[in-house]
Fold this sequence. Notes:
The chain is α+β, with helices and mostly antiparallel strands. It has a single domain (49-182), classed as Immunoglobulin-like (Sandwich), CATH 2.60.40. It has one helix at 15-40; strands at residues 51-55, 58-59, 67-75, 78-79, 83-89, 94-98, 111-113, 124-126, 137-138, 143-147, 160-167, 172-182. Strands 2-12-11-5-6-7 form a 6-stranded mixed β-sheet, with no helix packed on it. Strands 1-3-10-8 form a 4-stranded antiparallel β-sheet, with no helix packed on it. It has a two-stranded antiparallel sheet with strand order 4-9. The chain is elongated and about 100 Å long. It starts with 14 loop residues before the first helix and ends with a strand. 23% of the residues are buried.
Amino acid sequence: MNGDSFAVADRGISKEGMAAVAFGLTVLMMAVTGGLLMQTSDSLTDGGPTLATSADPVSASGEHSQWVRIAHESGDTVSVADIEVVVRLPDHDKRATLHGLPTERLTQDDYSGNHVFTRGSGGVDGVVAASNGSDARLEAGDEIAFRLEQRRVDLVAGQTVDVELRHTESDTRLSRERLSVVE
């Protein structure tokens, strides 16, 4: 057997061929992964409205004490009826959600969770202080304002108030603010 016979070690693929196969497999895995991620993620149009907000610190004393004011700086216009305001008071271990908006007079039916809001017409201000069932809208330049009941939650300087605006129709967060309490 003197012919051209190849040993087992001589068979195979060249280094260049192996690099091409590895590159092809990498591209294939990336394409499959990208396709799966695109199927499971929401598109930008399905995310709900977007807006930018700002807020001043909450005053613990004085004429405007315990008022929380969130200003809509820019972004989409949102129906007030589609907004929930989630308030967390970590220093008092309390949480409540305003959901019956708009309202001229804050009642027990307008929120869930801990009783932290001032009830009546003195508890709301801004665009949320409109008649029930109205078509009030939160637009750039408007503000949402509510008052925390001092008998229930006595804020002192150095504490924080966390406020999150949620869009109920798309179940998305519109904004989140961490407010400092000042004297």
